[in-house]
Amino acid sequence: MAPSRAQVLTPLILTHLLLALPLPTLANPNPNPNLPFVINTWSGPFTAATDAAFDSLLHPAPNSSTPALDALVHGCAACERAGCDGTVGAGGSPDEACETTLDAMVMDGTTMNSGAVAGLRRIRDAVAVARAVLEHTRHSLLVGDLATAFAVAMGFGPEGDLGTAESRARCETWRAGGCQGNYWVGVEPDPGRFCGPYRPVVVAVENLRRGMTPTEAAEDAVRRILRKYPKISSGIVVVNNKGEHGGAGSGWTFSYSFRGGTMAATKVVNIPPLEDDLDHDGYDSPSEI
C-alpha cells in the first residue's frame, strides 16, 4: 500500500516577474499575454489546485516578494483541504499501520532551494510545513515525528489521527486480501501472498543452511552484490553455530578480528578483495539478488 501523498501535483508557476526579474519589469508596455501561468501535471479533481494557484497569482498578497511560491502553496493546500481524488490530505491513502501520513515538497524557482516533509503525522497542512522547512531551516527534508515536532514549533497543529473511517476501512480490506500489493522484497513470509510482520532473508545464512562453509557463504553473498554494484566497497563476516567463521569483501582489503575458546589473544584476519571476474553464467539474475 503506497503511503499517502500530501501533494501529488507539481505546479510550475510563471508570473510577469518570472521569479527572477525585478519589480520594475511590471511596467513593461508589452507584457506576455500568456502570463500569469499555472501548469499542473494532473487533471480531474486536481484542477481545483490549478484554479486556486491561478487566483493567487491574480490577487497576490500585498508586498509579497514570492508570488509564485505563494500561489504554489495555495494550489496545493486547496487539494489538501478538498481531498481531491481521495489520496491527498487527511483521509488519504493509509500506510501499513492504517495511519494516514502526509508528504509534500516545494521548490523556490529563483534560488532552487527546496523544502519537504515526509511521513508527517497529525498535521494537516503538509505543504505549508514544507514551505516552513524551506524558509526557516537549512534542511531539505524532515521526516516522521521530527517533522511533526518542527511543524508544532512553527505553529501548526497538532491534531489527531488524520485517518477517517473510510481510509481505515480501505486498509482493513487490504489486510484481508493478504496485503496485496506492497513494496516488500527479499523477506519472509512471501510478501506476494502474505502480510507481515516480515523478516529479511539473509543470503549468507541461507548459504550455511545449504551446506556452504562460512567463507563460501560470505564469498557467494559478496559476489551477488558485485553483480549488481560492481564498484562497491563491501565486507561481510559469517559465523556458523560451531564457531567456524570466514569473511569476504570487495573494493578494499577487509579485516575482522576474533577471540574464542582458549585463545590467549585476539587474532586479526585480513581478507583481500574478491575480483569481479565472473562470467555471470549460472548465477541468479540481478533481480534475484
Automatic annotation (TrEMBL):
A family per Pfam: Asparaginase_2
Gene Ontology cellular component annotations, sorted alphabetically: cytoplasm
GO molecular function term, any single one: N4-(beta-N-acetylglucosaminyl)-L-asparaginase activity
Residues making up the signal peptide according to the UniProt record: 1-27
Keywords: Signal
Coiled-coil annotated residue ranges, if any: none
InterPro entries: Ntn_hydrolases_N, Peptidase_T2
SUPFAM superfamilies cross-referenced by the UniProt entry: N-terminal nucleophile aminohydrolases (Ntn hydrolases) (SSF56235)
Domain of life: Eukaryota
Xref: PANTHER family: L-ASPARAGINASE, N(4)-(BETA-N-ACETYLGLUCOSAMINYL)-L-ASPARAGINASE
Official protein name in the record: Uncharacterized protein
Protein source organism: Staphylotrichum longicolle
